[in-house]
Amino acid sequence: MKRLLPINRHLTERLAFTLITLMSFATVIPIVAVVIYILIQGAPAVSLEFLTGFPRDGMRQGGILPAIIGTIYLTVGTAIFSVPLGIAAAIYLSEYASDTPLTRTIRIAIINLAGIPSVVYGLFGLGLFVIFLNFGTSILAASLTLSIMTLPVIISTAEEALRSVPQAFRTVSISLGATRWQTIRRIVLKEALPGILTGVILGLERAAGETAPILFTGAAFFLPRLPQSPFDQTMALPYHLFVISTQVPEMPIQIQYGTALVLLVFVLTMNLIATVIRSRARAKRQW
Amino acid sequence: MEKSLNWYEFIITRSIKASGYSAILFVALIFFFLVREGVPTFFEADLASLFSLRWYPIEEYYGILPLITGSLMVTLGATLVAVPFGIGTAIYISEIAPRWMREILKPLVELLGGLPSVVLGFLGILVLSPFLREFLDLPTGLTAFTGSLLLGGIAVPTVVSVAEDALDAVPRAYREGAWALGATRWQTIWRVTFPAARSGVLTAIMLGVGRAIGETMTVMMVTGNAPVLALELGSLFSPVRTMTATIAAEMGEVAAGSTHYHVLFFIGMVLFLISLGVNIAASSVVFRAKKRAERILS
Amino acid sequence: MKRFIPLAIATCILVFSTSCGLASSETASDSSAAYIENKGSDTIVNLALAWAERYQGEHPEARISVTGGGSGTGIAALINGTVDLANASRQIKAEEIDQAQANGVEPVEHIIARDAIAVIVHPDNPVSELTLKQISDIYSGKFSNWTEVGGEDRPIVRLSRETNSGTHVYFLETVVRLGSSEDKTLFSTDTLLLPSSEGIIAEVRQNPNAIGYDGLGYVPEDLKTIAIAEEEGGAYVLPSIPTVNDKTYPIARDLYMYTNGEPAGTVKEYLDWIFGSEAQEIVAELGFVPALPTTSSP
Question: Do C45 and A233 touch (CB under 8 A)?
C-alpha cells in the first residue's frame, strides 16, 4: 500500500500538469486562430484604395477612410480628456493620499468605474453630454463618454507604475531640497513614464475598439464627408464593422473581413507598442 | 523665487487632489443620471408590467424578468467557460511554464483582452453560430451558448491577469516550505499556493463575471435576442435576450422622455447596481482576506 | 525610449495633417454647402443612401448624411429639430404628431416608395405557399413544426425585426393580427428579434428551420420567397412590382419621408428629384416599388 503512494503523487502531477497545459493552449490557440483567420480572409480586400478611399455604392465598394479617420479622432479626443486627468488622479493616489476612508472610497469608485458595462456608459453619455449639456451626437460627446470609460484603466496602471518607483528616489530628492512636486515631476514621473505610457496605450486601445459607448453619442451610419468640427458626428471602425455586417444587404464578405482586419491591426498595433515599451523599460530598469 | 514656487506648487497640488476625487464624482454622476432618467419608470410604467414575463415595449409590456434571466444565463455559461480556462492558464503561466513560454503567453492573453467585442461578434455570426447549429443539431445557432463561449473568451484575460498576479504574490517561502517537506510541484500548487491566493483568485473570478454581464455588442450579435424567460438549463441552447443588448438595440429608436426611454434607463440602473454589487463583494473579500493575513503575519 | 518620442510626435503630425488635408480638400468646393440630414428607418436606409450618392454625384454642392436607427428615431429627430428628412417605414403615430406640434414642428408626409414585405425561407425548404392565416399562426406560436404547414419534420425558428422597427409593427398589425385592431395577439416569445434586416437574411440563408420576413428590397436572389394567399382558397401571389401596384399581394406598404412643414430650398429640390424618374428607377433597382408621387399632411 505504502509503495503505491509515491507513484500516485507523481502520476497526479503528470495528469494535472498535462491538463493545465492543455487548458492554457486551448485558451491561447483560438486567439491566434482568430487573428490569422481574419488576416487571411480580409487581406485580399485591403488595398491603398480601401484605406484611403470613401465608401461607394451603398458602402459596398470603395474604401473605409472616414471610419479610420473617425476612429483616430475619437481616440485622440479620448486621450485629451482622460490622460491628464487619469495621470493626475494616479499621482494623487500614489504620492499624496493616505489610507483614509476617503481614499478607500476613491479606490472603490475606480474599481466600479472599471466594471460598469460599456452600454451603460453609452446611456450616461447620452443623458449627460448629448441631451443635458446639449452637445448633440458629436465627436465631443463620444470622446467624453469614452474618456470616462478609459479613466479607471489609466488610473490603475499609472498608479501601479508610480508605486513601483522605489521610495529611495523620493527620499533622496527631498533630502536634496526639492519640493514634493519637483520630486514627482522630475524624478518619479520620469521613472514611471514607460509604465504609465503602457497603461495609457492599453486604455486607448480599448476605447478605439468599443462600439456601445458611441452608438448613441456620436457614431453615424454614413457621412458624405469627414467631420469638420468636434460637434459633428463621425463614422468609426467598430461601428462601421457592426453596420456592414448586420445592416447592409449584399455586402461583399471581403469588405466585412477587410474592415475587421483594419480594426484588428489598429488595435493590435497599439497593443504591440505598449508591450514593446514595457519590455524595453523593464530591460533598462536599474532597479 | 520661493513665493512663486509656492503658488505654483499650491495650484498643482490642488489640481491633483481634485483629479483624485474625480473618480468618485464620475461614479456619482453616472448613478445620478441613471436614476434621474430611470426612476420615472415607476411613475409611468405599470408596476405589474415591469415584473411580468413579457418584454414587448411597443405594446406597453415592460417585463424585464426575461431580460434579467437572459443576462444571467449567458453570464453563467461564460463563467463556466472562463473560470476553468482562466484559472488553469493563470496557474500554468505563473507556476508551470518555463520563463520563455511565459514571455510569449502573457502578451498573447493580453492580446485577447484587446480584441474588440464587435470583431468577436462578427466572427460569431459568420463562423461560430452556423458551426454550433450543425455540430449540436440545434434549431438555430444564435443562442445563449454561443454568446457564452464568446463572452468566456472575452472574460478570460481579466481572470488570467488578476489570478496570475495573485498567484505571483504568494511569498516564495510558502512554496519552498512545501518542497522542503517533500511535496511534488503539483501538490504544492494545489494545496499551498492556490489556497494562499484564494482571495485574489476569487476577485479574478468576480471581475471576470462583471466583465461578462456587461458585454454588449457580442451578445447583441449572436444570442438571437428573443425575450424568453430562461429558467431551465436547456435554455442555454436556445436564443435569449440580454439586458445590455436590449438597451443597445432599442435606445436609438425611442423618443426621448417616453416611457420606453425611462424603462431602458431603468435597465441601465439595474446593470449599474449589479456591477456595483459584484465589485463591492470582490473588494470586501480582498479586504477581509488582507485583515486575516495581517493577523496571521503579525 | 527618448528617441521614440520625436518619431511618435512626427507620426501624429503626419496623420493629423493628412486627415486635415483630406478634410479640407473635401470642403474646398463646399463654401455654400447645402447640408441635408436624413435619418430614420433601417428599411429605407440603403435606398436613402443610394439616392444620396446619386444625387451628390450630380449635384456636388449638396451634402447629404444618412443614418439609420429605425423609424422611431427618425421621427423623434424630426420632432427635436435635428434632421431635415425623417425616413419612416410606418406612418407617424398620433402621439408623435402631438409631440411634434407641441415642439412647433408640423410633420408633412411624403410617400417616396412602396415596399412589399416578403416572407422568406431557406431555399431547401419544400414549403412555397402559405395563407396569411398560416403565417399568423406560425408567428403567434400556434404552429411550431414545419409539418403543420406541409413541410419537413423540423422545428420552426421564427425571425423578426426588432420591436422598434416600422417593418415589425406593420407585420404585427397586418399579418399576426390579420389587420384587426382589436386583436391583441403577439409574436410568440421565442421569436428572435434581430436588430437588423440583414441579420434575418443571414440566418435564413444558412438555417433550413428558419422563417423570416423582410422588405423585398432586402431579399437576395438566393433565398426562397413564399407566395401568399390572402385567404384560404385564394390565389397564391409572389411579391413583385406589378402585384404590389395592383394590390394582389396582400402585404405591402408605403414608405415615407417626413419634413417639417412644406419642404423648401435644397430639401425641396432633393425631394422633387426623389419623385423623379431617375430616383424611382433606383427604387426599382433596389427591389422596392416606385411610388406614385403624392404629398399629404397627416
Answer: no
B66 Cβ under 8 Å from any chain C Cβ = yes
Taking the C-alpha atoms of residue C190 and residue A181, their distance in angstroms, rounded to an integer, is 62
Contact C164 B253 (CB under 8 A): yes
Residue B53 gets which letter from DSSP?
S
Dihedral (CA of B70, B76, B81, B85) sign: positive
Q: Residues B101, B102, B108, CA angle at the centre, nearest 5°? A: 95
pLDDT digits (tens, 9 = 90+) for C9-29: 656 565 555 555 444 444 433
Among chain A residues, the shortest Cα distance to B91 is held by: A20
Residue B226 carries which DSSP code? -
Cα separation of B43 and B83, whole Å? 41
Determine the distance in angstroms separating the CA of B59 from the nearest CA of chain A, rounded to an integer. Answer: 23
Mutation site, B11, B22, B120, interface A, largest A CB count within 10 A: B22
* pLDDT value, residue C233: 78
For C94-245, list the strands marked E by DSSP. 107-121, 129-131, 157-161, 192-194, 210-215, 224-225, 227-229
Which residues neighbour C87 within 8 Å (Cβ) at sequence distance 6 or greater? C38, C39, C40, C41, C44, C45, C48, C71, C74, C255, C256, C257
Residue pointed to by grid coordinates 436556445: B238
Q: Please indicate, yes or no, whether the overall pTM of this predicted structure exceeds 0.95.
A: no
Q: Which residue shows C-alpha cell 430639401?
A: C267
Between strands C227-229 and C129-131, the pairing is parallel
Q: What is the ipTM of this complex?
A: 0.85
Question: pLDDT by residue (tens digit) across A54-103?
Answer: 887 777 788 888 899 999 999 999 999 999 999 999 999 888 888 888 88
How many residues can be counted in chain B?
298
Distance CA A178, CA A172 (A): 9
- Tell me the mean pLDDT in the region C260-274: 88
